[in-house]
Structures are given as C-alpha cells and as structure tokens.
Specification:
By secondary structure, this protein is α/β, with parallel strands linked by helices. The chain contains 10 helices and 12 strands.
Length: 306
C-alpha cells in the first residue's frame, strides 16, 4: 500500500474526512455534523475521532503519514493558524496545524478550502493537464483557487484567490468582509435566496429558486440571469489579469449551471480582451464534494515530498 494522508474537509455544516493514497485512491471515509455552538476543543475532538476511525479501518494504519485540512478560512501559513472563519468562529486564532500534528503523531498541513478544490480538480478533475486555471466554488459564499503553471498560488499572506470579494457593484449589497457589492453578494447560495425574496418569491433554499426557475417562473429566471451576469463581470477581470486556460465552476450552486452559464460566457466575451476570452474554457467541476479532500491530500503529499 502506498503512503496515505488523512484529508479533512472542515465545513460549518459537516466534517468529512477520508484516507487518501498518493494516487488519489480513497480507502476509507468518516463524516459527522459540525458541532453547533461548541468550543474549539469540541470540534477538534471530533476531528481526531473521525481521523482515528479512518486510520483504524485501514489494512495498514502505519501507512498514514500526514493529515491535511481544507478549511473555509484565511490561513497564516507560517504559523498554521486560522483566521476569518464566519461559520466556525470557535476556531479563530487556533493553531490547528500543530494541534492536529501533536494529537495524531503525523505531519499536518492546512489549506484554504477553495484552493484545495482547485488543486483537486487540477490533479484528477476538470482541469487536469491544464497549467493555468481558476476554480470558483459557489456555495454559502463564493470561494476561489488559483493554479499558476501547475502550482497553487496563495499569495504572500495566503489570501490569493478570493474571487468572492471582487467588487462588481460599487454601491451594492454590504458584504461580510466589510466591503460592498462583492461577487459573493450576487453569486452565492445566500445571494440567490436574498435576491429571490427581494423579487417576492417565498423560498428557503437556493434549490427552491432553482426549481421555480426550471418551471419557468420569470422572477426566478431573472435571479439566475443576474447571478450569471455579476459572476461573469468578476471572471472577465480575472481573465484579463491571469489569462487562464480554464475556469472551473464548482460548489452546490453550480448544479444550476445551465441557468446562468450563458450569462457568464457573455460577460466574459464582452469584457475580456479578445484572445484571452477566446482561449478560456469555462466548465463545470468534476469531483463534486471530493475536490477539497483530494486537493488537501495532494497538497500535503507535495509538501512532505520536498
């Protein structure tokens, strides 16, 4: 059996952990709901419990060489500390990397969840064999990961790829980041629900809006048109700046891709330089919920192989 990494997708709703081999094989999985209103210690204890479950279920538990965590946060790479976790505030400022390493007795790596998804899709998914790509995750918020010359680009402070906080409407809806009019306020599941309610629809989830749109409801269709337009405006700027070969669209809201894909493409074509616009492919993600897990594993294998 090859070396194995324990790969964690740490979300505000669920914790998912898998034992992943160097070739991307998933050998075992564990999953649990994220404790609500709990302390950081409660969340960490649950992570350890899931990790031990995955490790003990392996044919050779000693093959586990590291744990990698994909987290919805800004990460202090040098110190392994989490920052800006709106859905997991109990872990704000916690040195999670060192805690996981010490308690499990293996190396540990932290990775932003959208960057992990970008790595996963570039390894085994939609952008495999593509040198320069952008992965955009449309979920509760909007995340982004950058792959430049086949390697993840994190920036000096680890904040590169924050696609969701590109301003597309200067006097637009206030954003949790402190700015206004961010892509996240127009292209996330939360935004879809808000815009639908503003249009007079009685909805509880973005899936409700999708179902209304599929039935031909004009207000719901207009919501996805607006979503695609704003997302396309943001992506057009990235096409001009980075000249990517591919943009991969993932996350739960991407299930409605056919309702806004044309609007995204239109804005990119109209607002980007002709050659980069013509070159870039805009496609759906292929790995689903496993993108972050596989990307986190890939990141830790790359680090411990240096």
């Amino acid at each position: 059996m090859n070396r194995i990494a324990l790969a964690l997708d740490l979300g505000g709703t669920n914790l998912r952990l898998a034992a992943v081999g160097e070739d991307g094989t998933i050998y075992s999985r564990s999953r649990a709901e994220t404790p609500k209103g709990s302390s950081g210690n409660d969340v960490i204890d649950l992570i350890i419990h899931l990790a031990e479950n995955c490790r003990s279920g392996l044919e050779d538990p000693s093959a586990v060489c590291a744990i990698a965590a994909a987290v919805p946060a800004t990460i202090n790479i040098d110190e392994g500390i989490l920052n800006k976790l709106p859905n997991l505030r109990c872990l704000e400022g916690v040195p999670l990397r060192d805690i996981l390493s010490n308690r499990l007795g293996v190396d540990a790596v932290l990775e932003n969840d959208a960057t992990a998804a970008a790595i996963g899709e570039n390894w085994l998914g939609a952008s495999r064999d593509v040198d320069t790509s952008i992965c955009v995750t449309l979920g509760t918020g909007v995340g982004g990961g950058l792959m430049i010359n086949g390697k993840p680009y994190r920036g000096k402070d680890g904040t590169a790829g924050e696609v969701g906080h590109i301003c597309v409407e200067p006097d637009g809806h206030p954003c949790g980041c402190g700015s206004r009019g961010c892509v996240e306020q127009y292209a996330s599941a939360t935004a879809v629900i808000r815009m639908a309610r503003e249009a007079g629809l009685d909805v509880s989830t973005s899936s409700d809006v999708y179902n209304w749109a599929k039935r031909g409801n004009e207000e719901a269709v207009d919501v996805f048109t607006a979503m695609g337009t704003y997302l396309g405006i943001g992506l057009a700027g990235l096409v001009n700046v980075l000249n990517p070969e591919m943009i991969v669209i993932g996350g739960g809201v991407s299930a409605a891709w056919e309702l806004f894909a044309g609007d995204v493409r239109r804005e990119v074509d109209e607002r980007s330089f002709p050659e980069p616009a013509k070159r870039v492919k805009i496609v759906g993600a292929e790995l689903g919920d496993d993108a972050g897990i596989l990307g986190a594993a890939r990141a830790v294998f790359a680090l411990i192989s240096k």
